[in-house]
């Protein structure tokens, strides 16, 4: 019986520079700061926060970006339903 080599696949991580992490956190914090209860009460919102934290702690850009997308979706859905206004925009 011939042995077959199994190919190992590894996660290819794209490394962000410090200014990219700062920009991403700035974007997230704009949504988080002052978020109304209609947004913070969503289960997906809390999952997004966990993903942001975990992604940052592990240096996992993909996880962080996914958390950011979920966070932004939670905000957008609440606004589109008319439950709140766009609190992070200062004009």
Describe this structure in words.
It contains 4 helices and no strands. It has 91 residues and is mostly helical. The protein has a domain at 18-80.
Topology:
Blueprint: H1 18-32, H2 37-40, H3 43-58, H4 61-80
Low-pLDDT parts are none
Q: Give helix and strand order, one letter per element, not per position.
A: HHHH
Terminal CA distance: 70 Å
Give the averaged pLDDT, no decimals: 87
Number of helices: 4
What descriptors fit this protein?
single chain, mainly alpha, 4 helices, 0% strand, elongated
Question: Concise description?
Answer:
The chain is mainly α and 91 residues long. Helix content is 60%, strand content 0%. It contains four helices and no strands.
